[in-house]
Amino acid sequence: MKLLWNSLHSLIFTEFWFAGFCRFINDSCVIFGALLLKLIINSAENHEILATFMFAILITLNSITQSIFLQQFVHGVFMSGSKVVSATTSAVFHSTLSIRMHRLQPSRTLGDSLTHSTSLTNRLTHSTRRNQ
Q1: Is the pTM of this model over 0.70?
Q2: Which of 28, 91, 114, 128 gets the highest tally of CB atoms within 10 A of its CB?
Q3: Do the Cβ atoms of 91 and 3 come closer than 8 Å?
Q4: pLDDT tens across 91-130, in order?
Q5: String of DSSP letters for the chain
Q6: What are the distances in angstroms from CA 122 to CA 27, 90, 98, 104, 110?
Q7: Please, are residues 110 and 99 in contact by the beta-carbon 8 Å criterion?
């Protein structure tokens, strides 16, 4: 079980933390956007045209940054989930195949079959990671 956990961890580690970083930046942009909107309202009430225009440009850049990082967050979470589902499905199929192979080869113990399926899953996970 620990081998499977380590394999999954090494498979999605980069995408998972990058998605978390993108979510942090996106949430920071949401808070900063509310602050910029307050500054735009205050400068418009004080008839400061240049400051209002500069804050409007900043809120536009903030919104563009927010949309880019939100898209990267969604992409990273989707890719992490897809990799986990693929690795888990292949592990289940390999385990099922090993158990059936145990029925065909009774001289092998069930533990040997499960160890063999775990090593196959580990190799599959590492080959998937190398191909990316």
Answers
A1: no
A2: 91
A3: no
A4: 777 666 665 555 555 566 656 666 766 776 677 666 655 5
A5: -HHHHHHHHHHHHHHHHHHHHHHHHHHHHHHHHHHHHHHHHHHHHTT-HHHHHHHHHHHHHHHHHHHHHHHHHHHHHHHHHHHHHHHHHHHHHHHHHHHHHHHH-TTS-HHHHHHHHHHHHHHHHHHHHHT-
A6: 36, 10, 15, 24, 18
A7: yes
Choose among 100, 126, 127: nearest CA to 113. 100
Residue type, 60: T
Tally of structural domains, the chain: 1
Tokens of 110: 């069930």
**Paired tokens of 113:** 């079959």
Q: Which domain holds residue 41?
A: 2-130
